[in-house]
Amino acid sequence: MHDEGDTPLTEEELALARRGEALIADAVADSAAPQSLRESIERERARTRAPLWRRHGWILAAAGTAAAAVAAFALVLVSGGNDAGPPLDEVYAAAERAPTEGAPAVAGGDPPVLEARVGAIEFPDWQEKFGWKAVGRRDTELAGRRVTTVYYRNPDGARLGYAVVGGDALDEGPPGRHVELNGMTYKVSRSDARTIVTWEQQGHTCAIVASSQVPMSSLVDLAASRDV
């Protein structure tokens, strides 16, 4: 009985199969791909080798694997290796949410800090100098990063969220205009609802988000108090 699976490939089919294997080989060799992806591609490549070379099914397997590899690499490139971090809008939104924990304890020091930190950044105790008392905390996972927010309230009842993004500073440029203070640059944006101050400190992206009723200059002063 004639076995259709053993039918020799045409020259066109053979060229397509070879191209598929070349694409897979390039994908495996690409050092920008995660190790787990390269290992998966290599296993699929080995599975579709010599015994299936003369089968029409190999063409579909090779083409499918190559297409999957190309799609995976496109995702890696677009997402920055899944380490691009969250959009700033999501960080700002996290800073406006309700706290999920009580306020961190006061740790003292000069300047005084709280028992909360992200890397080398310790959250400040702003009550004595600025009148902003810590009232809560929230940890939010965004795009594989932890965003820690400590919330403060002033005697007038206004609240602000001071958020610090874990990991390296985000690549996205913050909105707003530049404000220079004590040799540091802050980006300040203001709307009818809120005022945002964004800056980089000790390799982290930091943001203060408050009601627009809070003077912009007060928020910049708070941000600048961290760069000591």
What can you tell me about this protein's structure?
This protein is an alpha+beta fold and about 230 residues long. It is built from six helices and ten strands. The chain has a seven-stranded antiparallel beta sheet with strand order 4-5-6-10-9-8-7, with helices on both faces. The protein has a three-stranded antiparallel beta sheet with strand order 1-2-3, with no helix packed on it. Strand 7 and strand 8 form a beta hairpin. The termini are far apart.
Concise description?
With 228 residues, this protein is of the alpha+beta class. 34% of the residues lie in helices and 29% in strands.
**Content-based structural category:** alpha+beta
Strand order of the largest sheet: 4-5-6-10-9-8-7
Which whole number gives the mean pLDDT?
A: 79
- Biggest β-sheet, characterized? 7 strands, antiparallel
Could you estimate the helical fraction of the residues in percent? 25-40%
Question: What is the number of beta strands?
Answer: 10
Low-pLDDT segments: 27-38, 48-56, 69-81
Order of SSEs: HHHHEEEHEEEEEEEH
Shape: elongated
Backbone CA Rg: 27 Å
Strand content: 25-35%
Alpha-carbon distance between the termini?
84 Å
DSSP helical segment count: 6
Characteristic key phrases:
single chain, 228 residues, alpha+beta, seven-stranded antiparallel beta sheet, three-stranded antiparallel beta sheet, 6 helices, elongated
